[in-house]
């Protein structure tokens, strides 16, 4: 079985940090830009429930894993629990600015409803795909400062903290999948992985577009010119969607593993400001 340890992944270090509790966040906290702000706000709304789903999907396959992988799963859970808590706090700032996120929440609930009754391995495959999305976005946030240029300081620190930990644990869901499907033929593994990523991408992109446009509508911004601004932000400058496209395609390589792309060097520049603290072991 291939594993993250084969590629020398970094230690997964849960950092119990809290951000933005004193308030003071602007409505358009990302450099006064409603489009960039809506992009990250719409993403943040998905995280509390989405990351709870990730935790349950991986935890369902924890029993019987090798000790090293079990330890990584436990650290992954601890990180994700903290991420959910901080995005709940961040999302409170979003609603405090007058945004109604009910439609965005409904989209998340509808997506999660589709997972009910599915075999646990199907949920793990979806989590593996979504964890690749978060890892790609995390890489870009840390690799190119333009993405958070001009952001309110506490918001920027929160997103960078989240990005560091997403990079650290980017191989955990994948390695759990490798263990859970260790008796599957390689061809079957690849087919399921590829089909789930295609389906997940369609739902993920559609949901986030709806969320961004809904938040902008509440700012009184709609129509073709606004659609162009959203497209420009995503694909041209800073162009985070365009920039993650090669990594997204890489997921479909038969020999793919998250740690074949070793980007741990991005962590070091941010991690000095993110001291680790002790947390209780997860249940």
TrEMBL record:
Q: Which Pfam families match?
A: Metal_hydrol
Q: Which ranges are annotated Polar residues under compositional bias?
A: 1-12
InterPro entries, sorted: UCP07580
The record lists the membrane-crossing segments as none
Locate the region Disordered. 1-24
Recorded protein name is FF domain-containing protein
The organism of origin for this protein: Sphingomonas sanxanigenens DSM 19645 = NX02
